[in-house]
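Dataset card, provenance and construction

Sequences and ligand SMILES were collected as paired inputs. For each pair, a complete structure of the chain with the small molecule in place was predicted and serialized as structure tokens. The example below shows a pair involving copper (II) ion. Curators did not alter the output after generation; any descriptive sentences attached to a record were derived from the structure itself.
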Amino acid sequence: MRFGKIALVVGVAVRKARATLLMFAVAGAVLAVAAACGGGDEKASTPASTQPGAAALVSHKPGAAHASQPKRLEAVIEIDLNEEGKQQYFANPQGEKNPTFRLQAGKTVGIHIHNEGGLTHELAIGRKIQAGEYQEVLTELVPSDLFFYYGDVKAEVEGAEFGEIEVDKGVRDVWMRINIPAELKGQWEIGCFIEGHYEAGMHASLTVE
Ligand SMILES: [Cu+2]
């Protein structure tokens, strides 16, 4: 049971691809079962550090080397979801709050999402904000692949179209692999729409160039 909670700490909010969400839920459940079973009879022969899930519990600094990441990436950007006092923000590995993030169109880019803060946060990418959400959502227009690593095991969702990713505190190994077509170049925004967070500053510019 010690790894059972891990499956619950990553939530993906999906507005369109409900079948995809179901697939993720199933994959997560399988992982949770595998992790829970993995620590059973063979625990004497398996060092704790190599058990599934062990690495997910180990803190690492934003931008630090990580053993697991999606294959076929041409570029990587790191986004930390965080807060300080009453301010909520996205940060780059240099610690800048709500900087302008940049993505190159036509390249397969990995977005490494990690929550180093003490609260649950969301990451949505869109523009034309109205009534607390984006009217144009980049991740609904462009399918992406999602990866969730738990130590040396992972869950992967291919071709997901989704509204936002919700990430609990302490979750550091969520990745999105996306290739944005040239016609979507321009100004976008990354925002967190958990109640009060956007208003508390949790939005940053994203330039697709
Ligand atoms: Cu937030």
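Derived descriptions for this record:
The pocket of copper (II) ion is lined by residues 88, 121-122, 192, 194, 197, 202 (CB under 6 Å).
The chain is about 15% helix and 40% strand.
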